Amino acid sequence: MEPVVPEWLILVIPIAIVELVLVVAWLLDLARRERTKGPKWMWALIVLFVGVIGPVVYLVFGREE
């Protein structure tokens, strides 16, 4: 007898993996940068509480070259 995996779980797992990869990339980038566009604590709140869009917003708008 095969285990039954709910359909919603098949959709949630890839999204969770993408979210985890984005947050790790964000943490590494934020830790390495001396300056950002705005305070680092602000970007931390945005990334942590906005969800999947938060890390993308930081990587596009928050990094100061």
Structural key phrases:
single chain; 65 residues; 72% helix
Structure description:
With 65 residues, this protein is mostly helical. It has one domain. The longest helix is centred in the N-terminal third of the chain and has 26 residues. The model has no long low-confidence stretch (mean pLDDT 81).
Would you kindly provide a brief summary of this structure?
The protein is an all-alpha fold. 72% of the residues lie in helices and 0% in strands. It is elongated and about 55 Å long.
Question: What are the segments in which pLDDT stays under 50 over at least 5 consecutive residues?
Answer: none
| Secondary-structure class | mainly alpha
The overall average pLDDT, rounded, is 81
Work out the radius of gyration: 15 Å
Order of SSEs: HHH
* Total number of beta strands: 0
